Every structure is written in C-alpha cells, then in structure tokens.
Amino acid sequence: MGKQLDKMLERINKNEVMNTYRKHGTSSMAYLEICEVTKHFPGGVVALDHISLSVEKGEIRAILGENGAGKTTLMNILYGLYQPDKGKMILDGKVLQGHTPQKALNLGIGMVHQNFMLVEAFTVLENILVGLPPPQPLLLTSTRVEKRIRELSRKYNLPVDCQARISDLSVGEQQRVEIVKALYRDAQLIILDEPTAVLTPQEVEVLFKVLKEMAAQGKTILFISHKLKEVCSISDRITVLRAGKVIGTIPTSEATHHKLADMMVGKEVILKLERPTCPSGKIVLKVSELSACKSRGVEVLKGVSFVVREGEILGVAGVSGNGQLELAEVLTGLIPATRGKIILSGKDITGSLPRGRIDAGLAYIPGDRLRWGCIPDFSVANNLVLKSFWKDPFTIHGLLQPQKIVGSAQRLIREFDIRTPSSKVEVKKLSGGNIQKMILAREMSLGPSILLAAQPSRGLDIAATEYIWQRLLQTREEKKGVLLISEDLEEILTLSDRIIVMYEGRIRKEMPNENVDINKLGLLMAGAEIG
Amino acid sequence: MLKKFEISFLPISVSVEKVTDLSPLKKILSPLIALILGLLIGAILILLAGSNPLLGYQALYEGTFGSLDSFTEVLIKAIPLVIVGMGIAIAFQASFWNIGGEGQILMGAIMATWIGTMKFLPAPLMLPLILLGSFVAGCLWGSIAGIFKSKFGLNEVIVTIMLNYVAIYLQIYMVRGPLIDKSMPFWPMSEYLPSYAFLPRLLSTTRLHAGLFLAIGVIISAWIILYHLPFGYKIQAIGLNPSAAQYGGINVGWTLILTVGLSGGLAGLVGANEICGVHHRLLDNISAGYGYTAIVVAVLGHLKPLGVLIAGFFFGALIVGADSIKQMATTPAALVLVFQGMILILVLVIDVLFHYHIHVVRKKEKGEST
Amino acid sequence: MILDKLFSAAFLISLFSATLRMAGPISLAAVGEVFSERSGVLNLGLEGIMLMGAFAGFWGFFVSHSLALGILIAMSSGGLLALLMAYLTVTLNLNQVLCGLGIFLFGTGMARFLDRLTLGGSTTPAITPTLLPVFPLALRKIPWVGPIIFEQNILIYLSWILILIAFFVFSRTSIGLRIKAVGENPQAADTIGINVKRIRYACVILGGMLGGVAGMMVSVGSLSMFRENVTLGRGFIAIAIVAFGRWYPLRTFFGAIIFGWAYAFQFRMQTFNMTIPHEFMFMFPYIFTLLVMVLSAKGYIAPKALGTNYSREGS
Known about the structure:
The complex is a heterotrimer. Helices cover 33% and strands 24% of the residues of chain A. Chain A is α/β, with parallel strands linked by helices. Chain A has a six-stranded mixed β-sheet with strand order 6-7-8-3-9-10, with helices on both faces. Chain A has a six-stranded mixed β-sheet with strand order 16-19-20-13-21-22, with helices on both faces. Chain A has a four-stranded antiparallel β-sheet with strand order 2-1-4-5, with helices on one face. In chain A, helix 1 runs parallel beside helix 8 (228-234). By secondary structure, chain B is mostly helical. Chain B has two domains: 1-20 and 355-370; 52-326, no CATH class. Chain B is built from 13 helices and three strands, in the order E-E-H-H-H-H-H-H-H-H-H-H-H-H-H-E. By secondary structure, chain C is mostly helical. In chain C, helix 2 (9-38) runs antiparallel to helix 11, helix 3 (46-64) packs parallel to helix 5 (96-119) and helix 4 (67-91) runs antiparallel to helix 11 (196-223). The longest helix of chain C is centred in the first third of the chain and has 30 residues, at 9-38. The model of chain C has no long low-confidence stretch (mean pLDDT 87). Chains in contact: A-B, A-C, B-C. Chain A binds chain C through residues 39, 41, 47, 73, 76, 79, 81-83, 100-102, 104-105, 111, 113, 116-122, 126, 129-133, 136-140, 181, and chain C through 172-175, 177-178, 180-181, 184-185, 187-195, 301, 304, 312-315.
C-alpha cells in the first residue's frame, strides 16, 4: 500500500542531479541560528521549550513533528507573527529584534502558510501588489509588477495567471501564487508549512522539483511536515520536534523511518492499523445523481452516485475544492440538493431537514470541528446532547434534566477516553483530539446507521489519530456504514474498503482498496483521464 | 502570554498575563466597578453643568431612598427597565441585537390604549386582554426584524431602529387622530382608560402598581425559559454558534424568530404597563427612552435574569435621582443619556480588563535574563 | 390639477434641488462609513457621531462666525468619538455592535448635554446665518441646471469633493487596495506586513470625521439651527445605504441620492396631500429604507471580515 508511494519518492531522491550544484555556506556561522526560543500560551501551555537549531545557507531543512509539536508556532515566531518569551534568532548575522512580518519580509524571510494568506476577492496580481515593500507609490501601477511576476513564474516553473481571481483557483494553483509572492519579495529564506497536505502525489513531485531548483539558486528552505516519507525525500537534514522540544537533527542520509518515528513520538509507533476483513451487508446509503450548487449558483456537485454498505468504509479521495465539502453539506441537509436522491436505510431523505436525517440514522463528524461540530462555549455535557437535548431522558415534561445530561456525559467521557477535568468544562478548552473524540462520542451515542466523517484526523497528533482510526474501524465492525471524506491519502488507504475519487464535482472512478496504484490515484485526483 | 514592563527608576517589574477565565467574583465586580467609575465621570459632568457633584449625589441618594414615595418612584421606573431589559437580554443571548425596544413598547402601548378604550368590552376581561394584546403587538413588531434577519440576512440593528421611527410616528398619529380624547381635542393624548383597565395600586399613598408583579414574573419566567427549557438551550446555542446549532438539528430560523418575538412581546407588555399602571392614557414620549436604556441594563446585568433585575433597579434609581439634582444647566434626561452610553462602554472595557492579571514583582538583579 | 403641479418645472426643480440637499449629509456620512466598513469595522455609533458633529459644527460656527472653524470642530468631535470607537474595537477587541451602540448613546447624550449647557440658557434660539451661495449669479440662472446644481451650499460641494476623493482612493490607489485587504482578510494582510491596526484606526477615524461634517450639514447647512435629535436616524440610514451601495463610494452616493429624493418627495407631498396624515409621510423615509434593504438583500458581498475583530494570536 505505501510501497508505491515509497517508490515514487525514492525516484525523486535519485533524480538529484541538482544536488551536485548545491552551494554550501562558506562562513562558519550558520545562516540561521535559533537559540533557546521559548513560548508560553495563556493557560500555562508551553508551546516551545528552549528550542535551539541552526540552518546553513542553501540547505533544505525539514522540521518534522506530529501535530501539536510546535512546528507552526516556531515558524510563526521566525516570521514575526508571534513574539518569543525567551531566546533569540539570528539571520545572516543580524539579530531579529522586535520582529514583525514587515521586518521579516524586508530581511528576506518568506512564508507559505498552511492556510493560504490570500485575499480571495482579489486577483493574483492584486494579492502581490498589496504586499509590495514600502514605499508604495500612491497610484497602482501594474505593468512592471506583472512583468516581474512572469519572469519569476518562468524561472521557477510556477505558472500563474495574473488576472485570475483567487476564489476561482484550485488549491495547487493558490499555493503557486503564495510561492511567487514570497519570491517576488526576494525571499532568501523560504518557510513552507505543511505544503503537501493539499496536493496530489504528482503535484508533490512538481513542488519538490521547484524547491530543489530554489535551493540550487542559493535559497534556504525550511520544510515543515508531519509526513515521514516526504521529509526523507526532499530534505538535506531533518530536525525533529516533539512536545515543544528539539529532539535532534540528523542528516537525511542517515535517517530511517523507524528512527524518525521514534524521535517524533518517543516510542516505536508507525501508524499501522490492521483492517480485518469484514463482510459487507445490505446497502445503507444510496446516493444517485446528486447535485448541488454553491452560493453563487455555480454547480459544484454534478450528478454523483454511489452506495455505502453495512460493515464497509467508503473512502472519498480528492484534493480539497472538488465538491467534497458540498457533498457532505448536501448529505447532512445544510444545502439543498438541486437534483438527485439520497436514500438512507430505504428512506428518502433528499428533502429532509437536518433533524430528519439525524433521526433517520445519519451521523456526521465535520471537517471544521470548531465551526460545525460543536459549540465551543458550551460545556462538554451540553455539547454531548446537542442532537438529543429535547428528547427523553434529557427533557421530561418539557423541562431539561441537568443531572441526566451530566450523568450521560460522564459515561461517554469514560467510554470514549475524552480527557477533560469535568463534564462542565467548556469545550473550547479541550485539545483538538479530545474535541474530536467528543464529537465522535456524541454521534455514536445516537446509534446511527451511517457515519459521515470528513477529515477526521486533521490537526490531530498520532495518538489521537490512532484512536479515531480505531474507532472508525470499530464502527465498521459494528455493521454500520462509514463514508470517509479525506484529503489525506494515507488515511484513505488505511481505512477504506472501497475508494472513489472526486474531481470537479464528479466521481472519476471507483475501485476496491486492493493493490491500489498510487500514481494512478494521484492522476485521477488531478483530473487526468484514465481508462 | 506574558508581557513584562520594567520601570527603570522603580525597583519593581510589572508583568501582565492574559487569563482565559473569569472568577465569579470578578463577574459580579465588573458591573459594580463600571457603575462606580461611571458615577465618578458623571460627577465631572455635573461639575461642568455648574452644579456641585457631592450635593448632586446626595440629592440622588435622597431622591432615591429618602422616602417611601421616592423609593416607589424608583420601582416604577425600574419595572419597565427590568421587563424590556430581560427581553433584550434574551434576544442578545441569541446574538440578535434588538434595538427596537422603543418601537415595540409603543406598539404595545397603542394596542393597550386601543383595547382599553373599547367601551363594549366586559370589565373583568379588559386587563387580561390588554396585556395579551400588547404582548402580541410587540411580538409582531419584533418579529418583522426577526424575519428580515432570518430570511434576508438583513442587519437587525438598522431594521429595528427604522421600525422604531415608524412606531414613533404611528404613535404620534394615533394620539392626535383615532385615539384622541375628543373632549380635549387640542391636547395630544388619548382618552382616560376606565378604572377597571388599571393595574391596581399596591400602596395607596404611592403610585406603585401591580406591574411590580409583572416584572418579577418576567424575571422568573426568563430564568425558567433560559435554563430549564429546551427552548433556552436553543436560544443560547444559536447565539454562540449558529452553524453547529443548525447542523445539530436546531431550526435556527424559527428559533430566532420566536426568540425575537418573545423579546418584542415583553417590550409590548411594558407599553401596557405604562398605560395601565402609570399614565392611564396614551401620551407622547410614553416610552421615555426605556428601549435604549434597557439595552444598557441588559449588558450591565450580563444578560442574566438576576443581573438584569439588579441593573434595572440601579438605573431606575439613577433616572429618579437625576431629577433631584438641582440647579443644573442641563436637563436630567441629557445627563442620563450620557451616563448610559458611558456605562455601556465601561462595562465592556472592564470585562476585558479583568482578563488581565497584573503581577508586580521585585526586580531581579542585573545580568539575569528577561 | 395635482398631476399638473407635480410635473411642473417649478415643482421638479425644487424637488431635485432638495434631493441633492437632503442627500448631502447622508451621502457624506455613508462614504465615511464605507471607509470604516471596508477596513472591517462596523461603526454603529455613526448616528451619535453625526449628532455630535451637528452640534459641534453649529456651535463652532455660531460662536466664531467662521464656517471653516465650525467645520474643523465638527470634524474633530466626530474624529474623537471615532477614536474612542477604534480604541474599543481595534485595540481592546470588544464587540463592535455593542461598542457602536455605546458610542451612539454617548454621542447623542453628549450633544444634548452640551447643547443645553452652552446654548440652552438664552431666551433667543440660536440660529446660524444661512450659508451664502458659492457660484456666481450667471451660473445659477441657467435653467434647470442652475437652481439644482449651482445653488447648493458650500458644505454640499465640499461633500462632493470628498466623495470623489474617496472614489479615487478605493479604485486607483495602493492604500485603497490595502484597506480592502484588511477588510477581506486581516490575517493575510497582517502576514504580508500591512499594519492592520493602523489602517483600521485611520479608516474609523476618517469615517468619524466625515460623519461629523455630515452632521453639520444638517444643522448648519439645511436648518441653520440645532435641535435635539436633528439627525433623526440618518446615521443608521447611512449605514443601510453603504450596504445598498455595495461598499463602493459612487454607488453609495447614488443610493443617498435616491434617499434624498425620498425625503424631499415626502416633504413636498405633505403640502399636496390632505388625505394621508403627515405622520405617515414622516414614516416614509424609514419604510423606504426597509424596502431598499429587502430589495437589495440578494447578492450581498460585504467585506469578508466586516464586523469581526482581528488580533494576532499569541503575540
């Protein structure tokens, strides 16, 4: 399963002709020095604990760590968005004092964030214009800027259309704009935060080529990731972060997956779950010709049809922005279907309100858990009854029964291993993993017949991810249907029995999860036509 | 987040830390401190107005608590503030900014007068009908804004304020037209209501009327609704996270409209309260800015029933007391208006400031890292 | 007979002239609010700011007999109130709606308070001189265009110039682009080095200054006196018009003109029509606003970050 991915990434490694052209720093002092950087957050959380590391010029350094290890926090400090409580940073001999993004940009630090920092209503050109270094001319003059954008675009093989509106671009295209933005400001140190999360395997290959070209031109690259394989294929050296501390820095040539996993998590854990064979039963969810429109009337879901059976996990693979979100929204009743049918356990729920679908047996773990999945200001107990508070036993004769609510909450907290001081604590205080467990607990407590899970392990550390994956497999064993929507190929390949690939609102192909050709999968996700 | 300030000539360093939780003590203290600060700033205003603030506040105190008469006057002013304030607090909990208190009160008052002057209605039915009618009038008036927000996404602040103006002009028209007292055609006021439409007087020597029970009833009902009924759960849910609430199965649109209807209805009741309990006829300016003052009352009371009760009482005291500050070169009404705005801002500011803990520490010796 | 009068040149000229005059304060206040809202801050205190400006400008002019000084004072009072609003929302990150209401109540109260304090004592009501026409008689005598366009007072012309500048800023300048970026995605703007706080402060204060002058246009420009609540909700109507104009200065100006027409029309209809009581005529502008809001509700594309505060996490 992962072998195909490995082979492809090895190929990238071996194509390292560029390697020979890479310059090494001539001075003894490193290009970037980070010394004893420490950062606390309110509530006593220690995000970074005396971090020290140094990076050479022209190096591609990977910062590896699981979600929550502190990688993004460190980069945000480097970029000037956060201020460290202790410690200092030295770039090219200059100490970074009173650091702001403005100063970072002037010093040649560019960052491509995980969530793109682009104004969606603007065009590509406007996004770059608005970030021009001061002093800015009074009037907007675009011809010179456009010319330079085209030059950079050609030089680094990053095709961008200056007049395109960001909201019309694909995720991969948006990322290119972000990189061009950084290059336009003459960034010498480029930070990329989890850049491959949103790309198809082929796009990852292309990105890596671009990064190597940039390094060959003398730029220093910091590559943040939690993915072992990619990190091994792109970097010169790997620094591993765990719980806010630097565990160590090793040259990539000496790194093995086991060693890295050990450093990342502290124990020999590679996420390898056994998926026992499970006979699938009758059809629990049948979707035919389902279509839906986005707010502007543009059709984003175009006649999708599939089934999910009891005891099976159907994985929906695809790069974000190809209709997966709308699929989830139509299934849960948040947006209306313009065409097609949804039949759940034999019942037509196409026109039902959300509550009707919940009653029919549909459970949903949303991708954006804080926005759609819970009420962060409510207590854990109140959140757990979000879908059942008006029913027996939580409401009797029209009156809420607080003790029953708390009692049930305590039970679920135990059963689902939700780490919280009490059921009365506000959900916003819990960690991402525990919030996800809480949402899962709530959904399962309703005894659904199908569970719809979107990006279930996004942002979670390995332990929480493992737990969620186990639970999803368990749900499958309990003879329920699971519809898994995920951009994380590893997640799809680990859990699914069958896979469908979505591209531009349609299903490209359906296949069983056996000996899946990653290459082919990647091509399908990017929209290529395959027989 | 810890921010450290060092003052070079003092042997201390101050560090400010942001805290995420507020202790219950702080929650009670913040409105109190806002009030005190407000009074201090108010003193400056009184000074500007040419009066002596100390005398002024003394007069305020005496004007409020000095006699049974003045105390009951405070209650009379507090009753509408508490009822409308609670209505507004409920709407605010659903994140619906109901600024239409004035208009909803007026619609209730108009309805109350209209029903009250219907000669053919039997006496025992009159008061209950008036209360019901004014509630419905305010409810419908508020629901307009609720529907506009729910169906069209319109900004409820603007809508409710526009409706306020419409209601004001409607009231002006009514009291000079259909509802006018024909025996006194040059005064803009309605006929006197029959005595069986009055809210009965509680203490014969004062003006205190049964509206007091109405107010207490509203507070208790609000407490039950918000914390013991599923409806209350829905109100808070849509106020805190409408997306999750909707996906969780709550019908956000309907809940919003019902909540706003309830809010408007309570304001409508105040219309009846003023007509049947205080003035016994419809006059200009019968809402007396209660709709706006009640917003401050609601925020000061942290949107909770008990808080609104106490805050309503304080503001009632303020309004009555302002009248007794003598020899000011400005009207008491203007002073109260300024005070209202100030208090609203102060409450918000102090709530935020309380999130910061200040530690003052003896300075460390030189050479030690920050 | 009535229709004759309605379409007579005299009536129409007077109507259109009044349209521009009534549209003036609303358009200026609305364009100021466009700045504020484009940067992401909804300033509901505009009504209080306008009222304060109406008083301050009036008082300044009345006391010093200098229109320029009056304008300066009106601008400063509006700017100060807006500064407070900016401090509360941008620095302290308080709820924009509640702060705006606080400023509204405070500003309204202050205007009334100061009015009574400074001018209330005298027995004769304070009146400022009617503003003299700006353009020469020759221009003003041109049929139709003369009375409608060239007979307005200087404040109206000032507002037109300011609105044109606003249009220019948003469509052609880099600062306009940055303001828009802040209102659409403050986090992105922050990361590319734009000082979000500074831009928001500047826009809110500018909105307040324009709002103050707009208030003055009502008291000094139209009425030559100051009365309690002289602005009568125009601040809120201006906010509705900003949305109607989709946050573009010129479209907003157009919306204000439609509004001005509604006011002017309603006024004139009162003399014509004896059957509809004039209170209902007075209601017209507000009902009109509601109608406009409902009709223009579809296709609402507000600046994405409007109404939400921004603060750098963990800074």
